[in-house]
Design brief:
It is a single chain. The chain is α/β, with parallel strands linked by helices. The chain is built from eleven helices and 14 strands. The strands form four sheets. It has a six-stranded parallel sheet with strand order 3-2-1-4-5-7, sandwiched between helices. It has a three-stranded parallel sheet with strand order 6-8-12. Helix 4 runs parallel beside helix 5 and helix 6 crosses helix 11. The protein is globular.
Length: 317
């Protein structure tokens, strides 16, 4: 990567990725884009920022030409829980946006990274140590869009030679930017409430296991796979990656190691619970480890310690 354009840069992943890439490749070589200004971050002040609705092909092509982009990191997306409330909007952004990125890449010779998700799996998928290649029959529109996106990226690589790459992200946890309507959001909000209120009401059942990852590991995975030798990537667009698997009770106990008086109760959201129940408990990420050296650094307790420390500073506590 030399000249990078990031769509959806104001989101949970994009906020931290943009800052990291600017530090590595230079502020002048990373173009952050979003369809609205970044209100809670300084991305539009500390480097190149352009307004972009990823469904606008002409505008995307204009920016790629203007800044001589060679790598597109497509993070613009409607997430799982929000998508169930408006499937049509999700499909327009997630699929038409990705299609535009691939078409621009085909025309301009760019590499495209776009993330998939554990949502690409479904109730019939093996729940434990889910294989890299297995049955994918998701029951959410978000999951359907991720499976379709994986296949579309494969097609553009095989049909047109577009250098497409991607990973299946688990739930992501970050202190810098709040998530935007995903099923795993509780694992971010719990840290805020633990510090501000000493208690948290969880919208998933106590024993709901899901794969999770701390944002520094997620950012590192994007950089690693984008910089990997293309010849080593057998699976290319949908590598399983994971760092930890836990349920709400596990994260509660982890927080109590640092805040013993922390309390948690439950008010289960049936929509989010149904979504979570359809996803794997844990993933087999051996292909990512073998093909491009994936190796996460954070487990649950290490993440909890860092989250609480960083959030105390952010919240002025």
């Amino acid at each position: 990567m030399k000249k990078i354009l990031i769509t959806g840069a104001c989101g949970q992943i994009g906020t931290e990725l943009t800052e990291t890439l600017r530090g590595i490749y230079g502020v002048e070589n990373v173009v952050a884009t979003n369809r609205s200004e970044c209100k809670e971050t300084s991305l539009n002040e500390n480097g190149i920022f352009e307004m972009l609705d990823v469904t606008d092909y002409d505008r995307l092509l204009e920016l790629v030409k203007k800044y001589e982009i060679d790598s597109i990191i497509n993070l613009a997306a409607v997430l799982s829980a929000v998508g169930e409330a408006n499937p049509q909007a999700l499909w327009n952004v997630n699929m038409n946006g990705l299609y535009n990125c691939l078409e621009v890449a085909r025309e301009m010779g760019c590499m495209v990274f776009t993330p998939s998700s554990i949502a690409a799996f479904g109730p019939s998928t093996p729940a434990d140590f889910t294989p890299q290649e297995t049955i994918q029959r998701p029951t959410t529109i978000y999951g359907v869009s991720k499976v379709a996106g994986e296949l579309l990226c494969d097609y553009y690589f095989k049909r047109y030679g577009v250098d497409t790459r991607g990973v299946r992200f688990p739930g992501l946890i970050s202190y810098k930017a709040l998530p935007g309507g995903g099923t795993t959001d509780y694992a971010v909000h719990i840290y805020y409430d633990a510090l501000k209120h000493g208690k948290f009401t969880c919208n998933l059942a106590a024993d709901t296991y899901m794969d999770m990852m701390y944002m520094p590991d997620a950012i590192e995975s994007i950089i690693q796979i984008c910089e990997a030798d293309s010849a080593t990537l057998q699976h290319r667009n949908a590598f399983n990656i994971t760092a930890m698997s836990f349920c709400p009770e596990d994260i509660k106990k982890s927080i109590q190691k640092f805040i013993p008086e922390f309390e948690m109760d439950y008010a289960v959201d049936p929509i989010k619970q149904d979504i979570a129940n359809s996803w794997p408990n844990s993933l087999d990420d051996s292909c990512a480890r073998a093909e491009w050296g994936w190796n996460p650094k954070y487990d649950l307790d290490k993440m909890t310690a860092d989250m609480l420390e960083k959030l105390k500073i952010k919240l002025g506590l």
